[in-house]
Amino acid sequence: MSLWSRRKFFLTSLAGAAGATNLFAEAGVNGKGSGLRVPGKGIAAATGKRPVMISSANGVHALQKGMDILQSGGDTLEAAVAAVTVVENDPNDDSVGYGGLPNEEGEVELDASVMHGPSRRAGSVASVRRIANVAQLAKSVMERTNHTMIVGDGARRFAVAEGFEEKNLLTEHSRKIWLAWKAATSFNWRPGIDSPEWNGKAATRGKSPLDSDEFHERLRDICGNDNALMARALEVIKDPPTGTINCLAVNEKGEISGTTTTSGLSWKIPGRVGDSPIIGAGLYVDGDVGGAGSTGKGEENIKISGGHTIVEMMRKGMPPRDACLEALHRVARNYNNDKKKLGTFHIYFYALNKDGLHGSASLWRNGYEPNNRAKYAVHDGGEGRLEECAAYFDEVGGGQ
Predict the structure, then answer these.
(1) Which of 16, 296, 330, 382 is the most exposed place for a label (fewest CB within 10 A)?
(2) What pLDDT is stored for residue 399 in this prediction?
(3) Does 383 score more than 50 pLDDT?
(4) Mean pLDDT of 201-214
(5) Is the pLDDT of residue 100 over 60?
């Protein structure tokens, strides 16, 4: 490449990075009253430190497992997978793995992907039943086959051949919540007129079944008057979770890897696959640049290839947090920034570059609970902690 060509390439790349930053000013989304959190304002930028791990907020207590591996000189992908495996095995976390909330037929179906920055390899599985640790399974696909993705019963059979344990992933906790969802959405799962439990009341047209005395009686029966369980059931019936954990890790040498694992959208049509196992959407890692991932409504992320988009923005010099905001800008643009439509879902992005700089952004100010600020988990050598996400719209949304 000639000196002039190199100079032209550098100037073009620099202009591209500046242009990407200015995208937020387009289409009026950065005007007064827009509620947009402008990159570079309002939240202090993160400082780089290695080794460091980040994840969605539900991984905060599991990051120590991965950090132990990094601090002992272990591989970055091994560290990321070890962290999410803790959450996959936790029956009290109904967003991933064992105890995940099921599809509409009561079957837990799991998805996961991994990417290994040093070797530039990847593996993925989708619609997997009866195998809890699908992040490890995706890693096995990467390491032990010449494929990138295996799905459905083929993935289950591959797991069994590789020595993974088959088990019923539907815990009693999740089963009761699923039954409550069925009772709220289907007359077939409520006592009929020939039952002594029938109270003679019919659902009113246009009225939510969740407001009926009949449903609340059934809910108490299903949950055994467990107030915490009833509250959780109502929460996930009203706003079906898109439970996921994304985890990214970089070591002292700047090697980076990541994984995303999920039980997917609660009550989904069997076989539905979101963004988590899609390389370039729910996860993307480039060892020369960094990695990114997502949680939330996967369908929206797939349409913008969010993981890849964020890494390419970082390649052009954009800080991780601002790259996440750019991905959200593209999501919002697909709906012409219509907050009524965008308010029906939530989505988060997470990013970590090879220098240890990290950031996260959420579509709305709130987390999945309306009164809580959206946060993500960070561990850079002390202990896992939560940090605030930047917010694309500085107001409450996401189906709340």
Answers:
(1) 382
(2) 65
(3) yes
(4) 58
(5) yes
CA distance 256 to 148: 19
The answer to whether residue 205 scores a pLDDT higher than 90 is no
pLDDT of residue 196: 72
* 257-296 pLDDT, tens digit each: 999 999 998 889 999 999 999 999 999 999 999 999 999 9
Question: Is 171 a known active-site residue?
Answer: no
Catalytic residue among 244, 262, 295, 309: 244
> Which residues have CB under 8 Å from 219's CB, separation 6+?
180, 183, 230, 233, 234
How many whole angstroms from its chain centre is CA 233? 20
Pure H helices in the chain: 3-22, 63-71, 76-88, 134-144, 152-161, 172-185, 213-223, 227-238, 298-302, 306-315, 320-333, 339-342
Nearest to 298 by CA among 341, 333, 340, 268: 268
For residue 36, the cross-strand partners are 393
Q: Tell me how far apart the alpha carbons of residues 319 and 65 are, in angstroms, rounded to a whole number.
A: 27
Residue bearing the bigger pLDDT, 150 or 234: 150
pLDDT for position 204: 41
d(CA 209, CA 204): 8
| Residues with Cβ within 8 Å of residue 396, at least 6 apart in sequence | 364, 365, 366, 370
CA distances from 92 to 37, 95, 187, 225, 340 (A): 34, 9, 29, 18, 33
What is the CA 75 to chain-centroid distance, rounded?
Answer: 23
pLDDT tens string 275-284? 999 999 999 9
What is the spatial distance between Cα 130 and Cα 133, in angstroms, rounded to a whole number?
A: 10
Specify the pTM: 0.82
Sign of CA dihedral 85, 274, 123, 254: negative
Nearest-angstrom CA–CA distance, 152 and 104: 16
Q: Report the DSSP pairing between strands 385-388 and 358-364.
A: unpaired
Percentages (nearest 5) of helix, strand, coil residues in the chain: 35, 20, 40
